């Protein structure tokens, strides 16, 4: 009887999981479509270029460089794992992979909402690529009914704006309004293409990225002006998304992924851990040699597991793990998974 009881308990658990999964994903595993920059790019960066196709990128995961701007996983990998699927194939590798059943990743490192001098594929271009595949019937409406879009972009737009203005904030409010307006139009376009759930990340804690630390190379004080600008952007984005929900009549689920405050909490937690462990200053990047904000081929990252940032602009695998731990709760609530 004892063995039979255990069997019934296990059977009940499997049944509950099956019912829950059926409610979340009535047509099987969800598909994830990803748009944005290096925080979510998993392999669209050109292989013959500098950067994430060279060591020490990928040292922690999967052990070799795969085009991710980190020693390991990036935000996309965590969202995919949360959905119970593998990270979707990068768009540039779709012909060699031939596995697009998990969705596709259109994100391109260095890109922005607006066209960028660092990358050819702006957010609008990435959505064009998605739309073309839909026109070619690569995905059905049934696929889209069970899909999630992840959008994370905007940081590069502000970096380029700051470089063009030589650090001046003259005209920044108008720039921010225009940027958020275009981003909202892109989100609306993704919804009109048939994706039912759209997760859009806020700007991260821009002023605490090592590239913005004051004074340079001290890794002590965040640039609070950059943080303030990111907060203003995020507030406008929140309002724009609320308006999209109203205009859409709630046909599509729009979810704000609060990357900014998750990073605040993760860095605070890191500092607390560092007081009694081998962890170092969270604002100091792991990579020993950096060129154009990214870890160079000659760079060495000896202890990524004790670092929060990999290079001047990107969290390490350890950093992303910490950040995502503060995002899971909202995803469970807003995506109802």
From TrEMBL:
- GO BP, one example? lipid catabolic process
Q: Which InterPro entries match?
A: GDSL (IPR001087), SGNH_hydro_sf (IPR036514)
> Which positions carry the signal peptide feature in this UniProt record?
1-22
Q: What SUPFAM superfamilies does the entry give?
A: SGNH hydrolase
Q: Which Pfam families match?
A: Lipase_GDSL
Question: Under the GO molecular function aspect, what terms does this record hold?
Answer: hydrolase activity, acting on ester bonds
Alphabetic keyword roster:
Hydrolase, Lipid degradation, Lipid metabolism, Signal
Family designation: Belongs to the 'GDSL' lipolytic enzyme family.
Please give the name of this protein.
SGNH hydrolase-type esterase domain-containing protein
Q: Which organism is it from?
A: Populus trichocarpa (Western balsam poplar)
Traced from the root, the source organism's taxonomic lineage reads: Eukaryota, Viridiplantae, Streptophyta, Embryophyta, Tracheophyta
């Amino acid at each position: 009887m004892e063995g039979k009881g255990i069997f019934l308990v296990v059977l009940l658990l499997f049944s509950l999981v099956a019912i829950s999964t059926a409610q979340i994903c009535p047509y099987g595993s969800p598909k994830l479509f990803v748009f944005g920059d290096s925080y979510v790019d998993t392999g669209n960066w050109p292989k013959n270029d500098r950067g994430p196709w060279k060591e020490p990128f990928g040292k922690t995961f999967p052990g070799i460089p795969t085009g991710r701007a980190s020693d390991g996983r990036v935000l996309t990998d965590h969202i995919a794992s949360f959905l119970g699927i593998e990270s979707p194939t990068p768009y540039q590798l779709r012909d060699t992979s031939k596995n697009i059943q998990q969705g596709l990743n259109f994100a391109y490192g260095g890109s922005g909402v607006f066209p960028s001098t660092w990358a050819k594929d702006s957010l609008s271009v990435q959505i064009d690529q998605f739309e073309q595949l839909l026109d070619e019937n690569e995905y059905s409406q049934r696929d889209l009914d069970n899909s999630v879009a992840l959008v994370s972009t905007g940081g590069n737009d502000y970096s380029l704006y700051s470089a063009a203005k030589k650090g001046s904030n003259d005209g920044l409010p108008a720039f921010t309004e225009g940027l958020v307006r275009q981003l909202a139009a892109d989100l609306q376009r993704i919804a009109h293409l048939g994706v039912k759930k759209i997760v859009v990340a806020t700007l991260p804690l821009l002023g605490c990225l090592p590239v913005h630390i004051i004074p340079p190379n001290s890794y002590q004080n965040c640039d609070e002006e950059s943080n303030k600008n990111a907060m203003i952007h995020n507030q406008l984005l929140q309002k724009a998304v609320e308006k999209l929900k109203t205009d859409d009549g709630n046909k599509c689920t729009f979810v704000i992924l609060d990357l900014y405050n998750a990073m605040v909490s993760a860095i605070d937690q890191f500092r607390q851990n560092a007081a009694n462990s081998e962890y170092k200053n969270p604002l100091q990047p792991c990579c020993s040699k950096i060129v154009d904000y990214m870890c160079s081929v000659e760079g060495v990252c000896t202890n990524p597991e004790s670092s929060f940032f990999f290079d001047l602009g990107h969290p390490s695998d350890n950093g992303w793990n910490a950040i995502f731990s503060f995002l899971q709760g909202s995803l469970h609530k807003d995506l109802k998974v």
